[in-house]
Amino acid sequence: MSGEAIPKKKEWIIEAATQVFAEKGFHVAGMREIAEQAKVAIGTIYHYFQSKEDILIQIFREEIEQRRQFFEGLRTSGLPIREQIQRILEMHFDRIKGNRRLVKLILMERLEPNERFQKVFRSLYEEVARYIEELITEGIAKKELAPCNPLITAHALLGAIEAVTSRAVLYNDEKAAVILREAPQELARSFWRWLGAVPQPALGGEGRSS
Amino acid sequence: MSGEAIPKKKEWIIEAATQVFAEKGFHVAGMREIAEQAKVAIGTIYHYFQSKEDILIQIFREEIEQRRQFFEGLRTSGLPIREQIQRILEMHFDRIKGNRRLVKLILMERLEPNERFQKVFRSLYEEVARYIEELITEGIAKKELAPCNPLITAHALLGAIEAVTSRAVLYNDEKAAVILREAPQELARSFWRWLGAVPQPALGGEGRSS
Amino acid sequence: MSGEAIPKKKEWIIEAATQVFAEKGFHVAGMREIAEQAKVAIGTIYHYFQSKEDILIQIFREEIEQRRQFFEGLRTSGLPIREQIQRILEMHFDRIKGNRRLVKLILMERLEPNERFQKVFRSLYEEVARYIEELITEGIAKKELAPCNPLITAHALLGAIEAVTSRAVLYNDEKAAVILREAPQELARSFWRWLGAVPQPALGGEGRSS
Amino acid sequence: MSGEAIPKKKEWIIEAATQVFAEKGFHVAGMREIAEQAKVAIGTIYHYFQSKEDILIQIFREEIEQRRQFFEGLRTSGLPIREQIQRILEMHFDRIKGNRRLVKLILMERLEPNERFQKVFRSLYEEVARYIEELITEGIAKKELAPCNPLITAHALLGAIEAVTSRAVLYNDEKAAVILREAPQELARSFWRWLGAVPQPALGGEGRSS
DNA sequence: GATGAATGAGGTTTCATTCAT
DNA sequence: AATGAATGAAACCTCATTCAT
After folding, report:
1. I need a labelling partner for D80 at 20 to 30 A (CA). Which of A37, A111, C112, D164 fits?
2. The most confident of A187-196, C136-145, D28-37, by mean pLDDT
3. What is the pLDDT of residue B198?
4. Which of D31, D27, D54, D55 is nearest to D41 (CA)?
5. Please, are residues D179 and C151 in contact by the beta-carbon 8 Å criterion?
6. Which residues 143-182 of C are in CB contact (within 8 Å) with D?
7. Is the four-CA dihedral A164, A165, A166, A168 of positive or negative sign?
8. Neighbouring chains of B at 3+ CB pairs within 8 Å?
9. What is the mean pLDDT of residues B138-150?
């Protein structure tokens, strides 16, 4: 009961920390409050985690591991590009439904310039961006996608998803509900128009002569 | 030169604070370091600002005021939608060139859950998003744009810009240089494919002669 | 011995704070010095007290509680007025012998215009003054005391005690010793001449056989 | 206009400082507030006074000088003791009417353990007490007063005056008005009963055999 | 004389972390 | 494993005082 699965108290602490971090931000959140929220003593937190930093890193890592696995599965799925993008969208919006606070926390602390945070976090973001970039490059090669700058487009794509996600997570109003309901399909459609190679007959004169 | 406009020292402090905040984050940045960076005494900072919070808020406010004016100008410009989006893109990337650190700071602290920060910051973001939303709605009515969900699309559009911006600001590698060079045009093209009314066989005259 | 009553360290802190406050005054006294005097870390003080203010208030409150109980006991004692005044005098001078520093502190900070201090302190002073006033009024009604203005007399009585007390506490010279030795009886005699119903030819049995 | 009388601005500053000190206490009062209240710049204060301490000391000194002169006049007046005490009472209550704030300030800061304050302040108090003591001793010798301990009685007398004064100055309620109106006569009567050698026929058994 | 921007030591307080129980 | 009293460095901020104008 204590030798295998994640100890019950550790779960409580992660749960509590996610909530308090998401509510106040990492730096303003205090160990006292996390301990109270988790209904354990402060000392207990230090049995399971080395420091406050460490809690956030473990939260990050778990999330990252899951996303990594998701992308790994996608990579080896052989699905067509369009389908893959659809899956990425679904994953993002499913996560919100599963744990809104965790998503908020990640959005908030993603850019915190703490070195250790950046090490675990940027690595994922870069990895994902690179994956999408490759996907696009490949898609262009296969003529499934229209020609474009894959680097820029990959980031733009992720940013679009993230921003829509943010709006739904940060506020909790009517619009958020609309977004959660309609965004996955709406974005899928948009992205296809954006990326698709389809019937784009005459693109002449599209460049600018600045 | 010291009797009317913003006092020289206040400028120094804003400069220094922008740098230190962008480097370490608002909470980790210390007044001591800001004072040293600005080459003034700590007390001097409190002569011009009420608190550490107040420094960030004033930095935010100035930036917000500029953006608000930009959007106000855009609103009354009567420019076609496509042109307006082009202008928004240009503005974003110009700001990076003008003050990379300020842009980084804003990206970083935009979501800090401090109430006072949110009050000044979210208001702008909402305002801008609403403006784009209206723009899209109007564009659809005029058949200049394809039908879509304007709320979601507005956020997605801003997110795309922001993410590409982030990538260019947060890192300082070769890719960042590429992005800064090519992103404005690339995104303009993308957005048009994304938003443009599809059955528009004759796209002639699409270039701008600015 | 450390699991139930007032923690040992809290006692140390109160002891140290009383000393440092009495020596330098509340505002000049520093937390650092109190902590050093109490041989605890500064943080420890904040474990037991909410603020510097709070230390003084707790010191005040304990003293006030004791005095209040003393006066409550007196009120229900049914002792003759003369005896009650005698007891009040004894109490005052006993307190000096018990904790000279505490008495000095109270004399010094009694008038500090801090709102929270006033709330706890003036309430007691008013209460005591009112009690003496009632005592005098009653004594006049019973013809045990000569007619006088009870309000003014009550304050004058307390002030006389306090001033003599002050002299003994603030300095530590030969005169102080004389005062401590003789003042209780001297003041008792004085007060009786002052207050006693004049045409009281037979004052026999005036001595106490306590 | 600048070589003789007290400069106008210095007066303003003393006025303002008296008010602010009396309101908040010496330590909490700030030079900024005094300057604002006096409608001068902070720097101006330092033209007339060496420090914040110095302002209070000058306020003290002026008051002390006046009282010293009063007592000097009394000493050489040759008035009977009873009359002298009457005059002391009158002086005290007149001062309240003349400058309530100054009286409050003196009551408040009289015990502040700052060395320089004590030097100027205790000297006066001791001097006055000693004067009254001598007066009483002399009165006893002349059989104008009943025998008593002059040291203790002198302090008790002053304390009584001071306490009644305090009550009238610190609060500003109906009772204060009553006190201001009636206290001088009431106290005069009381003191005479207290001290007078008059018809105190049988005082036998007045001592306590404790 | 008059000003107030500038100074920086030192104030109180917080909080991540430790460790004896 | 679990606790929470204890620690003390370092945070933000104040304010008496100075001095160039």
Report:
1. D164
2. D28-37
3. 58
4. D31
5. yes
6. 146, 148-149, 151-153, 155-164, 166-167, 170, 175, 178-179, 182
7. positive
8. A
9. 92
Nucleotide nearest to B45 (CA to C1'): E6
pLDDT at A203 over 50: no
Q: What does the buried/exposed string (b/e) look like for D165-187 if buried means 16 or more CB atoms within 10 Å of the residue's CB?
A: bbbbbbeeeebbeebbeebbebb
Q: How far is residue C178's CA from residue D152's CA, in Å, rounded to a whole number?
A: 9
pLDDT at C203 over 60: no
Contact (CB, 8 A) for B163 and A158: yes
Q: Given a cut of 50, is residue D51 above it in pLDDT?
A: yes
Question: Quick check: D20 contacting C, CB < 8 Å?
Answer: no
DSSP-assigned states of every residue in chain C:
--SSSS-HHHHHHHHHHHHHHHHH-TTT--HHHHHHHHTS-HHHHHHH-SSHHHHHHHHHHHHHHHHHHHHHHHHTT---HHHHHHHHHHHHHHHHHH-HHHHHHHHHHTT---HHHHHHHHHHHHHHHHHHHHHHHHHHHTTSB----HHHHHHHHHHHHHHHHHHHHH--SHHHHHHHHHHHHHHHHHHHHHHB-S-----TT-S---
Which pair of structure tokens corresponds to residue C144? 């045990």
Q: Flag if C27 and D25 touch (Cβ within 8 Å).
A: yes
pLDDT tens figures, A150-180: 999 999 999 999 999 999 999 889 999 999 9
Ranges in chain C annotated CATH 1.10.357.10 = 56-195
8 Å CB contact of A156 and B207: no
Nucleotide nearest the Cα atom of A32 (by C1'): E15
pLDDT at B4: 59
Contacts of A101 (CB under 8 A, 6+ apart): A18, A19, A22
Query: Using the CB atom, is residue C6 less than 7 Å from strand E?
Result: no
What is the mean predicted confidence (pLDDT) over B100-118?
Answer: 94
In this predicted structure, the answer to whether residue C200 has a pLDDT above a threshold of 80 is no
Residues 6+ apart with CB under 8 A from A195: A85, A136, A139, A145, A146, A148, A153, B193
Q: What is the model's pTM? A: 0.90
Structure tokens belonging to residue C154: 């009550």
CATH topology of domain D56-195: Tetracycline Repressor; domain 2 (1.10.357)
Asked if residue B89 lies in contact with residue A208, where contact means CB atoms within 8 angstroms, the answer is no
Q: What does the alpha-carbon distance between residue C11 and residue C33 come to, in Å, rounded to a whole number?
A: 16
For the cut 80, the answer to whether the pLDDT of residue B199 exceeds it is no
| Angstroms from B149 CA to nearest CA on chain A | 7
- Please give the average per-residue pLDDT across C152-171, as a whole number: 94
Nearest by CB to C178, from D151, D183, D187: name it.
Answer: D151
Report yes or no: D96 and D40 within 8 Å, Cβ to Cβ: no
pLDDT digits over D17-48, tens only?
A: 999 999 999 999 999 999 999 999 999 999 99
Using CB atoms and an 8 Å cut-off, which of residues 74-93 of chain D contact chain C? none
Nucleic strand E near CB of residue A28 (< 7 Å): yes
Options 1.10.3470.10, 1.20.1090.10, 1.10.10.60, 1.10.10.10; CATH of D1-49: 1.10.10.60
For chain C, give every residue range classified as CATH 1.10.10.60.
Answer: 1-49
